[in-house]
Here is the input.
Amino acid sequence: MTLNISVIGTGYLGATHAACMAELGFDVIGVDVDPEKIDALSRGELPFHEPGLPELIRKHVDSGRLRFTTDMAEVGAWGDVHFIAVGTPQQQGGTGADLTFVDAATTSLARAITKDGALIVGKSTVPVGTAARLYDLVQAEKNPDLTVSLAWNPEFLREGFAVEDTLRPDRLVVGTRKPEDEATLREVYAEALERETPWISTDFETAELVKVAANAFLATKISFINAFSEVTETVGGDITTLADAIGFDTRIGRKFLNAGVGFGGGCLPKDIRALQTRVSELGLDHTMRFLDEMDQINLRRRERVVSLAEQILGDLNGKKVAVLGITFKPLSDDVRDSPGLDVAARLFNSGADVAVYDPEGNANAAKRFPRLGYADSLTSAATDADLVVLTTEWNEFKQLTPQALEGLVARRQFIDARNVLSAREWEQAGWTFAQLGRHFSQPQSSAASA
Ligand code: UGA
Here is the structure.
């Protein structure tokens, strides 16, 4: 008999996990407290952009293996394995993780379970110690006549590649207290195990820490190369060549060494802050202090883009600036803690007339920052611009040539804040062209109109 699987929370993580579990052959129910989201998902519509996911959801809504509900009682009576995939955002006015949703979902689920032997599996990113606390919470809230257990199974999917990462993970980490819980999870992930996906069976604390350690390491890698950007901007040198050269050392590796305007999104920034906060609570005030430095290096990259704009334009007041890319990275419509949106807002607050264009992110950005100008194409954003700033490396922008903007912009002035274009090509075409990690001095002729 196959396991009935429920997934509590239908955001990026939960919706993807639910659809992928159905793809693996399980019967799945996705649960959310938001009835609008549930209605949309039941029609096979996704409230956010994730390549391949709407198709997978529609496929399994149609096949009957995937359905969505707001009814926890239904799920508690039906499910054998319940994944908790709700958000753990940064606390309002604080740096720790807000566990309200995890606590509420776990409590209501534990109370709703009527099936003996059910297993609750935490997937959300949480501060170390949360799983142990939730284990006790479940024992206190569940029906005393039933056995209900809890395991921790962090998720490492990347937005933009969520389906691929979930169906073909590079490793599976499970924190359990009982061998039978690990056995249940081996059944859930049987297909990945057949492919010899590394299986790391451990305790709650290690499982929780693996997730935050991975994100802290990735954030550190990005800020490490961006710190060298500050050096090469001062003394000269080529940051991309530097990254390539150290990346050939397989102990270092080239991935996540792309210098630019830095990291954003719903995970890396809040996870490094939550980790520092948690270790301070544990009395280890100094242990993760370097992460604060990583955060500061990252935020200084955004200031650097604004100061380059000022260097090129002088007073920003009334200057037309086109900002290309407003999502925190390509292949996503997510603008949470987005470097591009932050840069656009800073330019706007300094008096610039900002026109933003993003292939997927305009609508979400407009909800957060309605006062920016939103263009429906690259050419419309760049028309009459005194400066064009590339902040997210969508393919459409990576393929941009000086010729495509010729006759469109008011001045040939460009900041490539992701280091994806060829400086030589743009400079040869007569553009004032700045990148991050590259020494920049204003050419004499930069005031020339296009
Ligand atoms: C990140 C992790 O990569 C996932 O493994 C993890 O599961 C996820 O967080 C999570 O905790 O849920 P994601 O937020 O989708 O995934 O984004 P990344 O691909 O990690 O990119 C984060 C940011 O770093 C982006 O703003 C990106 O532009 C920036 N970045 C990335 C750089 O500035 N340079 C690089 O070399 C790489």
